[in-house]
Structures are given as structure tokens and as C-alpha cells.
Design a protein that fits this description.
heterodimer; A: Pyruvate-ferredoxin Oxidoreductase, domain 3; Rossmann fold; 7-stranded mixed β-sheet; 20% strand; B: 300 residues; alpha/beta; 17% strand
């Protein structure tokens, strides 16, 4: 593990400027070429409440926001009351001593009360206390003031020289005060320049859409998926992407299907409640064999649930979305960079198979922000539209055009509307090869069977289009940590911590849920003496799915469903507990009250 | 889609729009008249079948795309409008005609309808309004009159009927008309005007259900309908249009062009990506590495 591993937390009420402190710090770290990951715990309010941003930086890739905090910046009394208990010896707590009183300080925690009234050049500007605290934090972390100066100049230059000067003065005052009164955290800060790009998972999904050739994006605002809409709305006009806000999610998916049927690549994103409204549309895409990509950024349900908290609770909603029995693709990206990579991948599969494709992320990685390897952003990706007919010389040339022609692989060449010689109707009713309905007076059981089988056959070629999951660690470790989607980072770190504690384990993370590489997965799991499944839900949705596909039953389960993501120690503690063999289920308790 | 000049075009007749199967509507259904008028109008406008897409929801009248030779999409119940919106925005060279019934458009789909009007999507929406649910064998519809007895309201309908024309005029539709399948000549003229209009056109059509609606029959309408054009109505005046939309009596149920606003551009003419360049569906996919790099630079 890395020598340099710094964790800073900032807490306060919504509206106090926590995000801007976080952005400044992330920019400073990333510009130095350090890896960064930030996770924000917040509530569904615009002002007030309690917001707690954790930002971690290291010269190694950061895969989870981690367990501990080195520097805690408290912007209000509530934060110090809640989080002082989470600090350990050697860490710092920074606060405005004019307004905030620390309670019982744990042994060894260094108390850095800032006399903000004396330090501030303009004591009436409340935001300056953030800047003073940021200056102090940066000194304590072992940085020079220079990158903070650059960052503030960049951030405030629009507001004029006075505002820049005020902020620079405040930052220097905080920095100097800390230097006069405290010693910084030990250790050299590696310099890994050039810098790294910083992005959220939602922005990565949207950018992945741009790389995939999305031309039509529509959505209804819903946390935590709204970031995708914002990116698309901001960048769509320059990139030739039509972006529409629609009246509801039923309108969203059906509008996207209409655009996709006309021949463009169309995408939409929502969260679980919006996806519930979309489900009839998923079946419509399946029946008309229209490729469409729908993103569900999961939040804690059911119903409105906990809008700003994370969960992996929608797997079965995706598996069962819409009436009837039909092929679909479901993928769960495993980290922020994978959000970008997955979208072009799944569009190619959807286009080739002409079926609905669903992307299942969650608040943790979609709203999580971090550095990614710039090599991830590939703009010359292969766009494979499958058997799509977009030009015509006036006739199909091979007899009448059969939109739903029965073929060996179930895939029928798809012509876009407007072409001479390819007239057809795409119907939500069951229809024959020639798109004449067989649902009403022409019902014919043999034709119906043939069409169901034609669609179903498409899945036979699906597995070969996507990579099988790869095991991390030794195949002979004896213990496998099995997760899916967004938990990759925390499981990777937990495995390293376990190994440091003498517990050997390997790690298998599942990304492609449907189709599932059942044989490859079982070949890996059959080598393990014990398999523990770790997921962010109550009933073990993935464990049940794996069992339904393979009859495999895991030896133990770690499940968290309090709205907050798993932290490495939750997994480590759970594995150790499960290894005692006294129980098959471990449910961690979240220690940080946010 | 290579542009075909008028000189090269073979003469198009209503027969060119003859569908692959005959309609399965009940004999005497008002929808036959709508289908015939639609085929004639498309021919009159010189549209080739492949330049047209008919989009429908679910219900008797929504089966229409299967009975006409054009591209078609037979969508979900109440969702024809958003599907057609996506189609029209993705290829604004297509002539988009949406067909359906009152249950489909004014009941389950009304939430989409009102927003499509606000957006002024360039399409013609023909609602075959029979004031009843036919395919589900006769229940109250959003336009059923108060007191109408149906299987779902044997004691008589209690709910105020929805006024589609008033809703459309106040909702932002830029062309609002009403026809009657018993007046095929005027119906054809209205369809033609609605299709030629640049923007959202709502054409409500009295299309009697001979099987389940024994109240609003052909004779019922024949006795009451009065043509707006015969009475000096000015469709550019929204106040007059609204007054006529609220006119419903034994002496007068107006039909004709209620309202028209020629000044407002259609959505695809104002949308930033579509207002320049050809149909979206025919544009190259993806973005250039230079554009991509600019996006990454913003993240540094």
C-alpha cells in the first residue's frame, strides 16, 4: 500500500460552501498527479441539515473513501459534535473557535481552533472562514501555499481582484496560523505531475454516451441521476446531442425509443422510482426490437426512500422490468472510470442484439468524484451498429422487406424509417415476420411461438460479446470475496487489509449481470473453500440471483442497507466474524452519523 | 434518403397507401372514414408512402398503422405522442401522423399531450373521438357526457367531460381543428391543413362507435354539427376559438378549424442542435478526438 494516504473530511450545513472547499482540495491534489476520491454524505435539502464530505488522496489509485480521517474541518458546531468521536490520535480538528466549542476531545487529537475574527480581513464574509480553514488544513497536510493561491485565483478571478485578494489574504492567514502553532503531518508528499482529470461517475456516464455516439438524450430530474442530465444539457449543443427534459419518465423512455427507432443512439438516466415508471417502455423496446440504453442510478428505496443515500436494491427490479419474457442486457459498472467505458460497450451490444440494455450504478459511484487515468477517455471507439440499414436504392432487392425476419441467430436486419423499399410497422403487439399483428384476429400459436423463440435466440450470442469476470488475487487463497457493481473499490482495499492481517482472500467482482458468465464464475468459485458475498442491500439480491442461475449458495454474507456505503473495515470485520463460523450473516453498523 | 423532385415522382393516389390487411373495425365504424380521408390527403399532398410514419397508441383506432401503407409504429397505450416526438426530432424530414382514440389520447395519455402542445412538435395528431372505450367493450371515456350509462358507470357518468379543443387552445397547440367522419370532404380539408401546418396540430374527429355508444351516433352529430367556415369564424383569434370550443348544444356543435397560430416556429426549428443541419438520424455518430480532448481538458 502507498506511503502517502491522506484523508480530509469537511462537515457543515448544506449551503455553507462545503463543495467548494472539496473542489479546491481535489483540484490541488489532482493537479499534483495524486489520485483522489471524494464521497459526499448529504440530505435532500438545499439549506441546512448536515453535509459531510470525505476526500482521500494518495499516489496509488484510491478506490474507496476509506475508514479514518486525518484532518477534520468543522464548519459548524453540529459537525464537531458528531464527528470528533471518529478521530484518532495524531489527527487534526480545525474549526472557528469564535463560534464552535469542541466537547470531549479523544486522546491525541490535535485541536486547531482558528481565531477567525482576528484572522479574517473581512469578518462579515462568511465564506472566508472556509478559506481560512482550507489554508490551515493545507499546511497541516504538509503542502505549500502556492497551489492554494493558484486555485483561489482560478476560482475567484471572475469576481474581480478584490475578492481574489480577500481570499488570498484569508488563506495565507489560516496557513500562517497553523504554521505558527502546529507541526504538519509527517511524510513527504509525492509529486506525480502531470495532473490527473477529476470527474464524477454521472459525468463519466454522460461522456461515455458522447463517445458512444449518443445523439438523443432525455430525462426527468431525479436524484442521484440528475448529474447525467446536467452534463448533457451543458455539452449537448456543442456535441450535436439533442437533450430534452421530459414531463415524466414514461415520456422519457418512450421518447427515447421513438428516437432510437428513427435510427439514432438514444439514452436516458433515472433512479429506481423513475425506472419503475419506465418498465412498460422496456418491454416495448424488447417487442419492437429497438436498441435503447437506460441508466438506473440506485438510491435507497423502496418508494421515495432515502433520496440522497446509496443502495444496491434494484437488481431484481431490473431483472423483472416489464411484463413478459424477453432478452435484455444488464450491466453494473464497477467504478467511476468504468462508467465511461461501459456506455460504448453496452451500446454496441444493444445495437447488435436490438434489445433494451440497462446500466445499474448507484449514488456511491455516480455522485462519487475522483481522478481517473486520462487514457480511459477514448474517442475513437468502435461503434458497431449491428445489422442496421440506413440507405436505400429504392428496394430491399430480395423480395419484400421483413422487419422481423426469422433468422438462426434471432437478429433481423433493421431498416430506419424513411427509406424507400423498407416500409414496415413496429408494434407493441406480437407480430409476424412481415410486421402484421398476430395478437388479435390473426392469432396463430405457431407464429407466436416462432417469434418468442426468435427474440430469445438473440441471447445465445450475447455472452461472446462481453468479457468474463476476472479474479483478483491467488486462485488458491481459499476464501473469495464476491461482489457486484460499485463495491469493487472497497472490496479491493478490504482484501489488502485482510492480507496484512494474515487472512488470505481473493476477490471476484461481477460487472455484467445479464448475460451472466455462470460457467466462468463457477469455475472460479469452485476452487474456494469459502465464498462470502458482500452487497449493499438487505435480502442479498445478488446472492439470490446467483443461486437462481447456478444453484450456488455462498458460505457467508455481508450486507449493509443503512444508506451509507461499505467502508473497508466493515468488510474486514465481517469477514473475520464470518470466518468464526458462528453465523452466515454479518450486518455492519455505520459509525458516522450523517 | 435522396431527394426526389416532383418531376421524377410517379403520380401518387390513395391506392398507394392501401395497407396489407383490411381494418378489423366493426362495420359502420367512424374510423373507416378517417382512414379513407387520411389516404386521400396523403396522396393529394404528393407524399410517397416511405416519407410518412403513422404512430398510434392502443385501442380500436390505434390499429390504424396496420391498415395503411406507410412506415408505422404501434406503441403503448397513451404513449404515441412521446414516441412520435422522439421520432420527429430524430428525423424531421419524416411526415409524422399520430392516430388514436379519446381514451388513449385524452385519458391515459393526456399528460404527454399537453406537453407536446407546449413544445410545438411538428406533427398532426388525429384523435378518433367516440366518447367511449370500444376495444375494452364499452366503458366511460374522458369525453363521455355527464349521465352517460356504460358498463363502468351503469348509474351514469358523474365526471365532467374533458374539452380537448379548449385544452389545446390554452395548452399551446398552434393548430386546433375538429372534424366528423360523416363529413368526409371537410375532414380531408382539415387533415390537409393540419399536415401542412408547421407545428403541433390537433385534429379531434367525431368518429361514432356504432357498437357501444348509442348516444353520440351519426344522426346525433348530423343534426347538430355546424361548420365554422360557414359562420365567419376567425381562427387567428384565440378568444373566438375558445368560445367556439365551449359551444356544445342541441343547436350547435361546431366543426372546422378553431384556431391557428402561424407565427410560432416548430420545436425542431428552435432546438439548438436541430435548427442547423439535416435529420439527426442521418448525421455521423460520435464526436471527434479534438472535441473529446477538450472535454477532458475541462476536467484538469
Amino acid at each position: 500500500m502507498s506511503q502517502f494516504d491522506l484523508k480530509i473530511a469537511i462537515g457543515g450545513a448544506a449551503g455553507q460552501g462545503i463543495a467548494s472547499v472539496g473542489n479546491i482540495l481535489a483540484w490541488i491534489f489532482a493537479r499534483r498527479g495524486l489520485h483522489v476520491l471524494a464521497y459526499n454524505a448529504y440530505q435532500s435539502i438545499i439549506r441546512g441539515g448536515h453535509t459531510y464530505l470525505t476526500i482521500r488522496t494518495s499516489d496509488d489509485p484510491v478506490t474507496t473513501h476509506g475508514d479514518t480521517v486525518d484532518i477534520l474541518i468543522c464548519l459548524n458546531q453540529d459537525t464537531i459534535d458528531r464527528h470528533l468521536v471518529n478521530l484518532r490520535a495524531g489527527s487534526f480538528v480545525i474549526f472557528d473557535e469564535d463560534k464552535i466549542k469542541p466537547g470531549d476531545v479523544p486522546d491525541g487529537v490535535q485541536v486547531c481552533g482558528l481565531p477567525v475574527k482576528d484572522l479574517a480581513k473581512n469578518p462579515t464574509n462568511k465564506r472566508l472562514s472556509n478559506t481560512i480553514a482550507t489554508g490551515a488544513a493545507l499546511y497541516l497536510a504538509g503542502f505549500d501555499i502556492d497551489p492554494l493561491v493558484d486555485s483561489l485565483e482560478k476560482q475567484f478571478s471572475r469576481k474581480g481582484p478584490e475578492v481574489v485578494a480577500e481570499n488570498l489574504g484569508s488563506a495565507q492567514a489560516g496557513f500562517d496560523f497553523a504554521r505558527e502553532h502546529f507541526s504538519p503531518l509527517a511524510g513527504e508528499i509525492p509529486d506525480k505531475r502531470p495532473g490527473l482529470p477529476v470527474i464524477s461517475g454521472n459525468d463519466a456516464l454522460a461522456m461515455g454516451g458522447a463517445a458512444a455516439g449518443v445523439k438523443f438524450y432525455c430525462a426527468y430530474p431525479m436524484s442521484p441521476a440528475t448529474g447525467v442530465l446536467h452534463w448533457m444539457a451543458r455539452n449537448g449543443p456543442d456535441l450535436g446531442i439533442v437533450v430534452r427534459q421530459v414531463e415524466d419518465e414514461i415520456g422519457v423512455i418512450t421518447m427515447a425509443i421513438g428516437a432510437a427507432h428513427a435510427g439514432v443512439r438514444a439514452m436516458c438516466a433515472t433512479s429506481g422510482g423513475g425506472f419503475a415508471l419506465m418498465t412498460e417502455g422496456i418491454g416495448f423496446a424488447a417487442m419492437t426490437e429497438t436498441p435503447i440504453v437506460v441508466i438506473n442510478v440506485q438510491r435507497a428505496g423502496p418508494s421515495t426512500g432515502v433520496p440522497t443515500k446509496t443502495e444496491q436494491g434494484d437488481l431484481w427490479q431490473m431483472l423483472g422490468a416489464s411484463q413478459g419474457d424477453f432478452p435484455r442486457i444488464i450491466v453494473a459498472p464497477t467504478d467511476i472510470a468504468d462508467c465511461f467505458t461501459t456506455i460504448p460497450e453496452i451500446f454496441n451490444v444493444a445495437d447488435k442484439l436490438q434489445c433494451p440494455a440497462m446500466v445499474l450504478t448507484d449514488l456511491l459511484i455516480s455522485e462519487g468524484t475522483g481522478t481517473v487515468d486520462p487514457g480511459v477517455f477514448k474517442w475513437d471507439q468502435k461503434i458497431d451498429r449491428g445489422e442496421l440499414i440506413t440507405t436505400s436504392n429504392g428496394s430491399n432487392g430480395d423480395g419484400p422487406y421483413l422487419r422481423y425476419k426469422i433468422t438462426d441467430n434471432g437478429i433481423s436486419p433493421r431498416a430506419i424509417p424513411g427509406l424507400d423499399g423498407y416500409i414496415h410497422v413496429a408494434a407493441s403487439d406480437e407480430q409476424d415476420e412481415n410486421s402484421i399483428l398476430i395478437s388479435d384476429e390473426f392469432t396463430n400459436p405457431l407464429k407466436r411461438q416462432a417469434m418468442v423463440e426468435k427474440r430469445g435466440r438473440k441471447m445465445a450470442s450475447a455472452k461472446a460479446m462481453i468479457p468474463a469476470p476476472q479474479l483478483e488475487g491467488s486462485p488458491d487463497a481459499g476464501l473469495t470475496l464476491l461482489g457486484w457493481g460499485s463495491t469493487k473499490g472497497v472490496l479491493r482495499e478490504a482484501r489488502a487489509l485482510l492480507e496484512a492481517d494474515g487472512v488470505a482472500a481473493n476477490h471476484l467482482q461481477i460487472k455484467w449481470m445479464v448475460p451472466l458468465h455462470d460457467e466462468e464464475i463457477m469455475a472460479i468459485l469452485s476452487k474456494s473453500k469459502k465464498v462470502f458475498i458482500i452487497e449493499n442491500n438487505y435480502s442479498g439480491q445478488f446472492a439470490r440471483y446467483l443461486r437462481s442461475e447456478t444453484s450456488f449458495m455462498a458460505d457467508g454474507h455481508i450486507r449493509k442497507y443503512d444508506g451509507e456505503p461499505l467502508q473497508p473495515h466493515h468488510v474486514v470485520d465481517g469477514v473475520k466474524e464470518l470466518l468464526k463460523g458462528e453465523s452466515t450473516l454479518y450486518v455492519p453498523t455505520h459509525e458516522i452519523m450523517v | 434518403m435522396a431527394a426526389v423532385t416532383t418531376a421524377e415522382r410517379p403520380t401518387i393516389t390513395a391506392k398507394d397507401f392501401q395497407g396489407p390487411v383490411d381494418p378489423d373495425w366493426c362495420p359502420g365504424c367512424g374510423d373507416f372514414g378517417v382512414l379513407n380521408s387520411l389516404k386521400k390527403t396523403l396522396a393529394e399532398l404528393g407524399k410517397a408512402p416511405h416519407e410518412v410514419i403513422t404512430v398510434s397508441g392502443i385501442g380500436c383506432s390505434s390499429n390504424l398503422p396496420g391498415f395503411i401503407h406507410t412506415y408505422g409504429m404501434h406503441t403503448l397505450h397513451g404513449r404515441s405522442i412521446p414516441v412520435a416526438t422522439g421520432l420527429q426530432l430524430a428525423n424531421h424530414d419524416l411526415t409524422v401522423v399520430v392516430t388514436g382514440g379519446d381514451g388513449d389520447g385524452y385519458g391515459i395519455g393526456v399528460g404527454h399531450l399537453i406537453h407536446a402542445m407546449r413544445r410545438n412538435v411538428n406533427l398532426l395528431y388525429i384523435v378518433m373521438n367516440n366518447e367511449i372505450y370500444g376495444l375494452t367493450t364499452g366503458q366511460t371515456s374522458p369525453t363521455s357526457l355527464i349521465g352517460m350509462q356504460t358498463k363502468s358507470n351503469p348509474e351514469g357518468n358523474l365526471d365532467m367531460p374533458l374539452n380537448p379543443l379548449a385544452m389545446a387552445i390554452s395548452g399551446g397547440a398552434t393548430w386546433v381543428g375538429r372534424g366528423f367522419s360523416g363529413e368526409p370532404k371537410q375532414l380531408g380539408q382539415l387533415m390537409k391543413a393540419g399536415m401542412e401546418h408547421n407545428g403541433f396540430s390537433l385534429l379531434d374527429v367525431f368518429s361514432p362507435c356504432v357498437t357501444y355508444n348509442k348516444d353520440q351516433t351519426y344522426p346525433f352529430f348530423k343534426e347538430r354539427v355546424k361548420k365554422l367556415e360557414d359562420n365567419g369564424h376567425d381562427p387567428s383569434d384565440w378568444r373566438q376559438a375558445l368560445e367556439k370550443a365551449f359551444t356544445w348544444s342541441d343547436e350547435e356543435i361546431p366543426i372546422g378549424l378553431f384556431f391557428e397560430n402561424r407565427d410560432r416556429p416548430a420545436l425542431h426549428e428552435t432546438e439548438p442542435v436541430l435548427r442547423k443541419g439535416g435529420p439527426l438520424a442521418l448525421r455521423p455518430l460520435g464526436i471527434s478526438p479534438k472535441q473529446g480532448q477538450a472535454l477532458v481538458d475541462k476536467l484538469m
